Structures are given as C-alpha cells and as structure tokens.
Inverse folding.
C-alpha cells in the first residue's frame, strides 16, 4: 500500500502517552525514535524486518473507489491502529525499564524470558505501525485526510493486566473487522478491499491466540468469533483517550455511546450462568441488557433490576442475568453487552447498535487450561 505523510510522535508520560511507536529503549526495537513524516525506504525496511513483512508493493487504491463508507472504514482502522501502537509502545517501555509491576525476573513471565517476550511484543509493535501506515496511506490515496494520534490512558498497572487488556481489545478488533468487511462487500466497486481486511483480521487472530495461551487459556476460544460493529469499536477506543487530545477524530462519522460499565470483576466471570452488575450514567433509562456473542448468533435480551441502595443521581447500578450457555447463543471468548431503548427482538449486532443507549461493555468468558 502506498504510504504518504504520517507522523508518530513520542511523549513518555506514565500511563498517558501520545500515539507514539517511538520507544524501543534497550529492548532492541528499531522503532526507537519518531517515525518520519514520510519514512524513507531504509526505515521502512527496518520496520518490515521487525514486523516479519512489509507494506504492499502493489499500486495504491484508485481515488474513484472513494465513498463515505470506505473513508469511514479506513479512518476507524487508522484510529484503532494508532491506539494499539501506542499501547504496545508503552508496554515495551514498561517491561524494558523494569517499571514496578512489569519487571520480569530470571524465571520469566509464564514460561517466556524477558528477552523472548520483548521480541514478541516488538514484532507486534512493528506490525501495528505498518497497519497504521497502510490505513492512512489508503486514506491519502482516496483523497481523504489522514487520522492523527491522540493521547491515551490505559486501564492497566502491571503486566498481567496489560496482556488481558490486549486480549480484550484485540477481540473487539476481530469482531469489528468482520463489520468492515461486510460494509466493503456491499459495494461491488470496493470488494477488492475485502481481501486486504481479511489478511489483517487473520493477523490479529494470531495475536489473540498468543494473548490467550500465555495467560493459560485456550488459544482458540471458540469456533465462531463474536462480531461487533464500527460504532461499538469507536466508542471503546474513545474510552481510552485523554479528552480533547485528538487533532482530528471528529472527522470520523461514527456514533460514540454513553458508557456501560461492567462492575463485576472480570476474574469472577467463568463459562456459566451468573448475575452480572453493570452501571451507567443516570441520564436515561434503557429497557433491557442485550448480549452479543458469536459471529451470527441472535443477540440475547434480558431484563435488569436497579440497585436502589447503590444508585444515586449520577450513576445507576443494575444487576442482570448472564445466561451463558455454549449450546444456546453464547461462545467462549468475547461477549459484548449493551443497554438498549427497547426489548427487541434483535436479529443481529447492527440492530442492537441502532437501539443502544449505553455500551459497549466487554466480557471475557474463558476456560483455564
């Protein structure tokens, strides 16, 4: 894919970083300084070697393939890849500098030495840089403004939380790329984009298998991965952004929902039916909680009960059944929850998104090995 102007800048601020694949430190990453506005061939070759492959050497997409939906697709991909690049850059920095919670001793981390784990993450880091350049290069070729980095705040404080967080957002990416493929496929002129998205989807799946396995979970969680929609992904990414720090995210014409928070600790959720606790801003009352689980399962709609003792004028706390059953509408791995205006019924994730007030909440349901 043709690459045009794109800047990645570094701000080494603990827990809050600019979208900067710029910190490799002593870890050995070739991404050790700001990427040039237009990386020269030598720098791109270094990144490609670290990533295990290069950007496409084919021609860029023709400008006559541009459409509002195609532009939105590539904008969201770039927006997400910037977020992922920043996350892995900070994670590599934290491990390299032995930040408290990230230091890896002589026994390694879950069977991986510090050196090996850094090599794995550095490859992912470089791959995310190329994903970003690829999406922004497509936007440039289609005559659209490229997406610029924001500043991010990651909800993690140690290595274990970081790997679990990576597993969670990668699951969301896997679901969202399904939606992006479908959007492209609906326009015969843009069907050629489907193959490229599919190659990225598979690559993200390889990452997910690693994040699962190193945490002692099944590498492949289910036969059909949970789908998502672009609006859910856009909202999820925004929850990790420092308000007011994005130069041009407003050009992305997607919805940003009010937050739905999973209050129940993730560690207490296992592959069985149980009650879950959620919260949302006390600004509107939805009718139901809806769960999206699997690639083409019909969404599951449940009622909720308000916890009047815990709720106040700012926040509403509720409990709702989570009727997990792998034989009936649920899969291990990711489940997406949303609070909707109506009780449906909903045929698919797209219909849920159109009716959503609060969401998405991400739920990982996993079996230990």
């Amino acid at each position: 894919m043709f690459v045009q102007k794109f800047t990645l800048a570094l701000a080494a601020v603990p827990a809050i970083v600019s979208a900067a694949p710029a910190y490799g430190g002593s870890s050995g990453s070739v991404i050790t300084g700001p990427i040039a506005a237009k990386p020269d061939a030598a720098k791109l070759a270094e990144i490609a070697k670290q990533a295990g492959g290069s950007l496409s050497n084919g021609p860029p997409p023709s400008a006559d393939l541009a459409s509002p939906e195609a532009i939105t697709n590539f904008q969201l991909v770039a927006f997400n890849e910037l977020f992922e690049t920043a996350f892995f850059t900070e994670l590599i920095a934290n491990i390299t500098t032995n930040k408290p919670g990230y230091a890896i001793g002589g026994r390694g981390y879950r069977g991986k030495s510090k050196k090996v784990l850094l090599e794995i993450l550095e490859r992912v880091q470089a791959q995310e840089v190329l994903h970003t350049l690829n999406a922004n290069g497509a936007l440039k070729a289609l005559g659209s403004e490229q997406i610029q980095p924001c500043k991010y705040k990651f909800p993690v404080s140690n290595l274990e939380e970081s790997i679990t967080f990576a597993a969670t957002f990668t699951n969301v990416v896997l679901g969202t790329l399904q939606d992006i493929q479908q959007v492209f496929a609906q326009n015969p002129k843009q069907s050629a984009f489907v193959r490229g998205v599919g190659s990225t989807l598979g690559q993200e799946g390889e990452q997910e298998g690693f994040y699962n396995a190193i945490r002692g979970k099944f590498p492949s969680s289910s036969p059909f991965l949970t789908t998502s929609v672009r609006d859910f992904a856009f909202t999820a990414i925004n929850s990790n952004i420092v308000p007011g720090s994005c130069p041009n995210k407003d050009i992305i014409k997607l919805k940003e929902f009010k937050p739905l928070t999973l209050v129940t600790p993730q560690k207490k959720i296992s592959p069985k039916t149980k009650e879950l606790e959620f919260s949302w801003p006390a600004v509107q009352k939805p009718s139901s909680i809806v769960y999206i689980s699997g690639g083409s399962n019909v969404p599951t709609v449940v009622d909720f009960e308000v916890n009047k003792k815990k709720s106040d004028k700012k926040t509403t706390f509720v409990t709702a059944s989570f009727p997990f059953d792998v034989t009936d509408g649920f899969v291990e791995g990711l489940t997406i929850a949303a609070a909707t205006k109506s009780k449906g019924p909903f045929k698919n994730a797209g219909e849920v998104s159109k009716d959503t007030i609060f969401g998405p909440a991400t739920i990982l349901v996993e079996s230990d090995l």
